[in-house]
Amino acid sequence: MANSSEPTKKNFLLRFLTMNTNGALSGRSLPLYKQLGLQLLSLVIGFEVMFPILYIITLSFSSKSERPSTLQLIPTELSLTAYAQVLDRPTANPVTFIELLKNSILLSMGVGLIALLVAVTAAYAFSRFNFKLRQVLMVLVFVPLLMPAVGLATPLYLLMNSFRLMNCGGGAIAINPFFLCAPGVTGTLLFNLRDSLLGVGIAMISGALPFAVWNLKGYLDTIPHELEEAASIDGADPNQIFFMIVLPLAIPQLAVTFFLGFIGHWQEFAMSWLFLTKPENYTLSMTLYNMTGQYANSIPWNRFAAMSVIVALPVAVIYIALQKYITGGLTSGAVKG
To answer: Are 231 and 189 in contact (CB under 8 A)?
Structure first.
């Protein structure tokens, strides 16, 4: 009896560990032990990702600005003092939070939309038209992606710094480097393209275009040519085909491209810190860095955490708003068909 029941127990244990609990009628079925292992791994990854977020949120609700001596993931108090101080005056610079928010929105949204507009037209040209040096131009567009952004900062700095608007006196205005003041006249600087949000935006657009062009070009290749040929037979001109046929079909990938660019532009620090010198042109990420002092004890940790949460919120809002497009756009275009 003992020998006959032992295989039954083993069979029951084996059946228990290999049973399918997902209830799915299609797809690959996984045994129970693999499902438990994957779920455990997912919980570990989820905790690792959420740990710093929970810690920052807890720290932002603290009324004390000193560095905490204990690790807390659940708030013991719900004080909004840090948020009120950040919204009133983030740092000692005479710049309000609204001005900083406006600069960040203008820079990130402007760069994202202009780069997207230029990239989708260029990607459509590369995808649909055959012209001389097409492959060479595609390689040249790809080359900046191989270089680190910091490596391109110096030539961009020198290029933007050479564009200046000078008051030469007597009502004469010179635009360097195209026009200079008269010999012996120094002139007064009126505008420096490098030290402006416009200059930073142009530099960011040059860095965002290569990825946007390649990302959109791969997606546009998957849109069947027959749709455009049918629209052309029905009497649609090239502009109507592009705006009424191609762009609506490319909305998921346009949303993905804009969102990925928005994250980078919203959190851009190195380029802005290198170019801008006037506090009224600072962005939220630059202000967040200004809140750090020379020593850890001099940092207002609760305000620093509150500012971090505020800076991260727009990215979360944009992702939620574009979630259905992002989910489809990340998987579309992977297989041409």
So the answer is: no
| Integer Cα distance of 233 and 225 in angstroms | 12
Residue (of 281, 276, 307) closest to 292 by Cα position:
307
Vertex 139: Cα angle to 133 and 141 (nearest 5): 100
Whole-number Å distance between alpha carbons of 211 and 261 = 9
φ, ψ for residue 144 (rounded to 5)? Answer: -60, -25
* Concatenated DSSP letters of 84-135: HHHHH-SSSSS--HHHHHHHHHHHHHHHHHHHHHHHHHHHHHHHH---TTHH
Using CA atoms, how far apart are residues 39 and 220, in angstroms rounded to an integer? 37
Cβ neighbours, 10 Å, residue 166: 21
103/109 Cα distance (integer angstroms) = 10
Question: pTM (2 decimals)?
Answer: 0.77
What distance in Å separates the CA atoms of residue 33 and residue 238, rounded to the nearest whole number?
57
Q: Tell me: the pLDDT tens digits for 252-299?
A: 888 888 888 888 788 888 888 889 988 889 999 888 888 876 655 667
SS3 66: coil
Q: How far apart are CA 165 and CA 174, in angstroms?
A: 6
Residue with the two structure tokens 């546009």: 220
Residue 30: burial class (beta carbons within 10 Å; 0-12, 13-18, 19+) = middle
